[in-house]
Write a structure and sequence with these properties.
Number of strands: 10
Strand order of the largest sheet: 4-5-6-10-7-8-9
CATH superfamily of the largest domain: Histidine kinase-like ATPase, C-terminal domain
Number of helices: 8
CATH topology of the largest domain: Heat Shock Protein 90
CATH class of the largest domain: Alpha Beta
Strand content: 15-25%
Structural class: alpha+beta
Distance between the termini: 49 Å
CATH architecture of the largest domain: 2-Layer Sandwich
Radius of gyration: 18 Å
Order of helices and strands: EHEHEHEHHEEHHHEEEE
Largest sheet: 7 strands, antiparallel
Length: 280
């Protein structure tokens, strides 16, 4: 049995780190060919990024024909929230202020699926965002499609009317940024450095100039246009982009993600946002 313990509070990296430890326990049981039972009863608070991360891994197991059993959260508010956002298998039913977890396999055209999600988001977020959310998700989905060799990708979005911000999460289980750079002989000393190289425009696409992973322009829009935060985790690397301070980067000592997750918190602009001045 895997007992899921997540910290209270609003620290995405801490919960993602804890989520990766949970995933490692699940992997260990799988390798031993033991039954995987996920005990969620002790969870008192879960962030969207953690729900996305754990549900994505569960989908990976299910794709292999592995059954996962669950013990539901004891706290009703957590149980209701996970149900609303479609944890763990995803949902086709949208809520009033959120688009629940959606999983895409390689048999689906991810750009088309993301386009459908964006159309559904139009009546959930304020018009002042302009095309910023559309641009960010289109860029990231394009990079997953072209670069990561993923088996599945997952995405979710939620608008908080009272706090006036949008949370976006994008996850894929494909090649991490460090792995892809290694394959293309791009040198770096640690995984977080590889992420920073992608954020500043280093690309594996021939003739693609500074476009990189699409992260460079995404970073500019999130940080400068939307005064938002972005968390990028790929393999052991962690980069935190904060509008009020310098970017922070480091590597996990033990945890490692097979793939990449991006989690963004975007503040509602005071007026209609034109993103083009932020694009290079």
């Amino acid at each position: 049995m895997v007992k899921c313990i997540l910290s209270k509070g609003d620290d995405p990296i801490k919960q993602i780190s804890e989520g990766l430890s949970i995933i490692e326990e699940m992997n260990s049981l799988y390798k031993k060919k033991e039954e995987i039972v996920l005990d969620l009863s002790g969870i008192e608070w879960i962030l969207p990024c953690s729900a996305l991360l754990l549900s994505g891994k569960i989908m990976g197991f299910i794709d292999k024909g592995i059954k996962i059993k669950y013990i539901e959260p004891s706290k009703e508010s957590v149980k209701d929230y996970l149900k609303e956002v479609g944890f763990p298998l995803g949902s086709k039913m949208d809520g009033r202020t959120y688009s629940p977890i959606k999983h895409f396999g390689r048999d689906k055209e991810i750009n088309r699926e993301v386009s459908n999600l964006l159309n559904n988001l139009n009546d959930k977020v304020p018009g002042h965002f302009g095309t910023s959310i559309h641009y960010i998700l289109a860029e990231l989905s394009d990079n997953i499609q072209q670069h990561s060799r993923f088996s599945y990708a997952s995405i979710m979005a939620q608008y908080y009317p009272q706090k006036k911000y949008v949370d976006l999460g994008v996850l894929d289980d494909g090649m991490s940024i460090p792995c892809l750079f290694e394959e293309n002989n791009i040198k770096f000393s640690k995984d977080s450095e590889a992420i920073n190289l992608a954020l500043t425009g280093t690309t594996t696409k021939k003739g693609d100039g500074p476009r990189g992973f699409g992260l460079r322009s995404t970073r500019e829009i999130v940080k400068k246009a939307l005064n938002g935060k972005m968390y990028v985790i790929s393999r052991k690397g962690v980069v935190i982009i904060n509008p009020e301070s310098k970017d922070k980067s480091y590597d996990f000592s033990k945890e490692s993600l097979s793939g990449t997750i991006l989690y963004m918190r975007l503040n509602t602009p005071k007026e209609y946002l034109n993103i083009y001045p932020y694009l290079e």
